Amino acid sequence: MVLEGGGTGEGRGRGVGGDPERVRLVEQCPRCGAETWSGKRVSQGSLSRAGPSSPSKFHNFPEFSSAATPPGCAANPRRLRAPPSPCAPRRVQQTWWLPSAWAWCTAGSPGSQSTTCASPTSLGGHGSDAMHTDPDYSAAYVVLETDVEDGLKGYGITFTLGRGTEVVVCAVNALAPHVLNKDLGDIVGDFRGFYRQLTSDGQLRWIGPEKGVVHLATAAVLNAVWDLWAKQEGKPLWKLLVDMDPQTLVSCIDFRYITDVLTEEEACEILRQSQVGKKEREEQMLAHGYPAYTTSCAWLGYPDATLKQLCSEALKDGWTRFKVKVGADLQDDIRRCRLIRNMIGPEKTLMMDANQRWDVPEAVEWMTKLAEFKPLWIEEPTSPDDILGHAAISKALAPLGIGVATGEQCHNRVIFKQLLQAKALKFLQIDSCRLGSVNENLSVLLMAKKFDIPVCPHAGGVGLCELVQHLIIFDFISVSASLQDRMCEYVDHLHEHFKYPVLIREASYMPPKDAGYSTEMKEDSVKRHRYPDGEVWKKLLTAQGN
């Protein structure tokens, strides 16, 4: 156990319940090392009695010390305690609430009568592909509270596949000092500077920079900040972005390392040119939504009976664009692609996704044999880091009418810059939690516009659909002004756990109307699915132990 101050809404200040002499215990899981709130409280007296022989170790972190001046008191006048007003600054408190790791279950295996609410996604084959055969859809989840008394909180997530989520949580905690005790107004007033502060920490950047675990953690933190900002403004995030003037929008972007392709002046000009017809495009989105495609029908682990049933149901629901997972076995891919193409007919759009399975020559050879099924694209045919490999595959498959799509696991804007420069992709796929949140995604959307490459976001996972819908709706209204060859991925899993789930109508994302970034989860879902101490996981782990 370790000691930390703050709370999750019960009390303000360093202590719990307003008592500066009481602190909340944080338990460390002996299995994975993840830290979780225990719900227990001890006094400073009991803390002092914990000696070397105590079975628990206690660490009184300086930033959470109960002896420090409580926020909001006379010694700290910058913390406002008055009722909130439109001009009142909002400061992030010590209340940095971070569940350790999340793994979610589904409501049942598609095509069966039974429900498996206590099962992780891997048991049903949901999310399975050629490289990730047993994913347990998970997320690190950040909640930001402030000292303004209106109760607004910012929620941020980053998506993972199970093991390793606790590592992301550690990285988020390492970023905490850059966020705590900051005014929200100061953060968004110099968002570029704040983004660079997070990504340029002189020690943390050594385990990046701007890539891997530390960048996933950056996304979770920044997603929470954007959610809080949008809520304060009373707008859904897409509308917050759409209503910004070009200069303000561009001020949120860090242009370091990409000015050889896109300057701040060029970005402003792109946004200014897109002002023409902007009102009409917003009305179009509100009336008809943004076109989507489905991946839910053809996960690699699904048996044929499930695949057929889900394709049939999707066709009845009006879906016209389908994606199938490929890459593990060529003959099986041929059989499954033929099955799907026969079901959806020649007029519907089919895409394929290899999830980084192949070497470059193998990708070309494999897709040449799958070309008879007329795929619009092959997604992630090889390593996401291989820019020149993607370029070679793209060039080889162009005569077959097959485009290359990638971006789901691109580290940062620099990789996207190089993919665009090398003409390595025909479809660009942003991710709301892989890149550095909205800030970095904005730079990629603008580069894609300059290179005239359509953006077709990656979604699915835990909350990715909820988040990325905001970005692509903004892109259409304020950047690309086009729907040509554009669509957003949709996966019909886990939306029931979100307070503001996506709304799909006639195979299109309808623009969210609730304020924020749609990142907030339901409290009951959070409680039940927390790993490893939530009800769902306790039952499953007990069953496995028996």
Question: How would you briefly describe this protein structure?
Answer:
The protein is 36% helix and 14% strand.
Could you describe the 3D structure shown?
It is a single chain. With 546 residues, the protein is an alpha/beta fold. Among the domains are: 70 residues, no CATH class; 274 residues, Enolase-like C-terminal domain (TIM Barrel), CATH 3.20.20.120. It contains 18 helices and 16 strands. Strands 4, 5, 6, 7 and 16 form a 5-stranded antiparallel β-sheet that branches. Strands 9-10-11-12-13 form a 5-stranded parallel β-sheet, covered by helices on one side. A hairpin with a 6-residue loop joins β6 and β7. α2 crosses α5, α9 runs antiparallel to α16 and α15 packs across α16. The longest helix is centred in the middle third of the chain and has 22 residues. The protein starts with a strand and ends with a helix. The N terminus is likely disordered. This is Enolase superfamily member 1. It comes from Ovis aries.
Chain-averaged pLDDT: 81
CATH superfamily of the domain at 248-521: Enolase-like C-terminal domain
Low-confidence region ranges: 1-87, 94-120
Task: Say how many strands there are.
Answer: 16
How much of the residues is beta strand, in percent? Answer: 5-15%
The total of helices stands at 18
Quickly name the level 1 CATH class of the domain at 248-521: Alpha Beta
Compute the CA-based radius of gyration.
24 Å
The CATH topology of the domain at 248-521 corresponds to: TIM Barrel
Q: How far apart lie the N and C ends?
A: 27 Å
Protein name: Enolase superfamily member 1
Organism: Ovis aries
